[in-house]
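Hi R.,

Here's the input for the manganese (II) ion complex you asked about:
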Amino acid sequence: MATAPDRSGAPAHASESVRHWVLEVAARTRPDHVHWCDGSEAEYRHLLRGMQADGSLLQLNPDRFPGCWLHRSNPSDVARVEHLTFVCTEQREDAGQNNHWMAPAEARRKMDALFAGCMRGRTMYVIPYCMGPVDSPYSRCGVEITDSAYVAANMKLMTRMGAAALARIAKDGKFVKGLHSIGQLDPERRFIMHFPESLEIQSFGSGYGGNALLGKKCHALRIASWQARDEGWLAEHMLIVGVQNPEGEIHYLACAFPSACGKTNLAMLIPPASMPGWKIWTVGDDIAWLHPGPDGRLWAINPEAGYFGVVPGTNEKTNRHAYEMIRHDTIFTNVGLTRDHEPWWEGLDAGKPAYDWQGRPYDPANGPAAHPNSRFTVSAKQNPSYSPQADAAAGVPITALVFGGRRRSLAPLVYQARDWAHGVLVGAGMASETTAAASGDVGIVRRDPMAMKPFAGYNFGDYWAHWLAMPGRVKKLPGIFHVNWFRRDAQGRFLWPGYGENLRVLAWIVERCHGKAAGLDTPIGAVPTRDALDFAGLDIDEATIAELLAVDRAAWRQEADEIGQYLESYGARLPAALREQVTRLKSRLT
Ligand code: GTP
Ligand code: SPV
Ligand code: MN
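And here is the predicted structure with manganese (II) ion in place:
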């Protein structure tokens, strides 16, 4: 952009409020330099070269992985930190027991002390970004100020960053203020604070993904969910995928699965050979903003422009598109390395790790070569199945919403909620095994309503009430379903092949929404009849099929009790209509 910088270094089209805030932050944090990001390719290359020079990026084998880089995080900084993430509302009850809460004044005092002078000797990057297509009425902008070049480079891939965002901020007059410093990467001096009432985020002490790329979970989910409640829309932890059938019709689904439970893979699914004529289009892989549209349907945009995806498990067989997508112009974080400087991770059948994610010579005794939460950052434009509609200002119309969890038992492969209110209970009652995407134990089943436990920016009781109110805003509501790709047998093996074969389930969902597929009513909703779901060509026996589709009443009675107890813990904020749904579920089960 050929815009004349003023004395603050701001481009001419930066609004007064942005300039003012940048000057104020610079006065507090005392950087040596201020760099306003313009989002250009030249700037991106400059950031990469700078990090190569200071050792924070390693160039990967340029013949085999052109334009690819490896970043190794501090070993104490490899995942989101839910216990250090706070929602700071004036009233504690507004944040709800689903969030850690701190009074705004106290949080500001704490953060002021941490940020004072913290950028001395560093460059401060000013990153204007737009979440969503720049010309969409549904999009929202923010500015992230950070002292991390890694964050700036990742934001370039993950958002619409630079001049266009700055111009839109000047027009909107409002933006989310995100302040970030890596500090000393000290877990004892690490906080991710949200102030939804004043549209602010302050993050200190982590350089990792969701803690540091503030446009993603902090803005597009925690702050946006708060705004969405006030304005009558939904900000959700959902992929958006277009399913094209052999007749050429495309139906869009938005699916909420918890972290590391298959969103990116489903969004990029490759149809199995048994389903010729089917095609998948990716609109988004992690976040959906859902708005009541003028035609009475629910419309979705993906606020992001890139993918920050789980690397382990990605290979030619599970997801060929993802595997090809990350062979060029990709930033890898915390994967292993071969002797030839190619990235390596568990799940690849070729190559051998020479170094692990910490840069140590690979020794299986130290654990996996790639960290289980190692990630790729890549522009969505590199996805071979990227939907042309991903840039549509109006978004895409949603046919079905799908909830899903990682449950080794209980939840069948797929079932359909009876109606919207029951669907809200299906979402609110979700549970899933914890994964490496957040610090803490892995494999523990926990309640994760709508896959939003770590991301709802306000009280879940109010959130469910907001969901329950959608029928007043959306005339043609999407169907609501629940899936589980992760059922296991006694030996721990997956019962369902997953990945591309999941399209068989999506096909049933879409047909079901059009009244075309058969279902069997059960107390928890409709499951496919044995013949409504196509199992042809799969290496699955009848007993396994029966198990995948079975609803174990005794086990579900216990589940319904646990869901009821969990929901009751939200006390007075629990909507009566949701309590009523639990009562009805229990009575159907007896
Ligand atoms: P976040 O980026 O953390 O929100 O994760 P995500 O929901 O996008 O999950 P992703 O698609 O990256 O998958 C996470 C892990 O689950 C990877 O190791 C995948 O290989 C694995 N996975 C994805 N889909 C399936 C499936 O259908 N079956 C099985 N068994 N594993 C799957
Ligand atoms: C998740 O944990 O759900 C992610 C990765 O998508 S992060 O950006 O770290 O939130
Ligand atoms: Mn996610």
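One thing worth noting: The pocket of sulfopyruvate (ligand 2) is lined by residues 80, 209-210, 216-217, 259, 286, 308, 437 (CB under 6 Å).

Cheers,
M.
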